[in-house]
Amino acid sequence: MEGRIYQLQQILGSIEQLAKTAFTVVIVEIIAKITGGNTVLMASGATVATTLATIVSSFYLFMYYKNRKKDVWQEVKSSSSNENERIKRIIRNIVAISIPITLSSLLSVATKSIDTFTIVRILKNFMSESEATIQYGILSGKIDTLMNLPYSLNIAFATALVPAVSSCIATKRMKTAKKRIELSMMISILIGLPATAIMMMFSKPILEILFPNALDGAELLFLSSFGIIFVVLTQNIIGVLQGFR
User: Fold this and answer.
1) Three-class SS of residue 105?
2) Tens-digit pLDDT profile for the chain (245 aa)?
3) Residue 52 exposed, middle or buried by CB count within 10 Å (0-12, 13-18, 19+)
4) Of 193, 199, 195, which is closest to residue 218 (Cα–Cα)?
């Protein structure tokens, strides 16, 4: 059953991230053409795309449960680890796990907020304020968006790694945990290395295809691509550490 759950988690994560990417590109492009490039509405459309992706993954999970309801409950009842726990203990365990995960997510948001205040101010020492604002807009609007594509694909495996590792640790199956960690790290490398190479070698053509009316930023994309492999591996390491928690 644990193997099926692990597989389902990976599928759900992949569906959500792929749907998020597809909806974001389609919705933002449609809004841009209708409104003539209204950035406020385009940002709102990206938020809507995230919500739609979550709905798609939730619908898949509902249909999976609906079609396999009898098999799921039969496996739960026959499982050797099927034990009744008090509600207070369940709530306490959820809170103990969710707090560090929430704090780590808040740190990434805080980093973006700090960048907003500091990057333009530092760049103003070397160029005009308007040029500094343009450069930050290129970084946050185009480069970060492209960087998020491999990160989004990899985060599905990193998220699925948390319960997969924690279940193995709880049942003292260290060899299985090691195999799952190694597999996930290998997948991250297979995602990160090609993405790094493609972003570096084709930084200018990528911008020409995706942003034909705004070609600036090829150098920034080239430099930013160096960090892809390290970020995807960090995502997996975080998942491993959360699983051990």
Assistant:
1) helix
2) 555 665 666 677 677 778 888 888 888 888 888 887 777 777 778 778 888 888 888 888 888 888 877 776 776 666 655 566 677 887 887 787 777 767 766 776 677 777 777 877 888 888 887 887 777 777 777 888 788 888 877 877 777 777 777 777 777 788 888 888 888 888 888 888 998 999 888 888 888 887 777 777 888 888 888 888 898 888 888 878 777 76
3) middle
4) 199
| d(C-alpha 227, C-alpha 224), whole Å | 6
Six token digits for residue 186: 């290998």
Give the tokens for residue 73: 């409950």
CA distance 80 to 185: 30
Residue 46 structure tokens? 């990206």
Residue tagged 């449609």 (tokens): 30
Q: Which of 113, 109, 132 is nearest to 121 (CA)?
A: 132
Q: What angle do CA 191, 102, 176 make, to 5 degrees?
A: 50
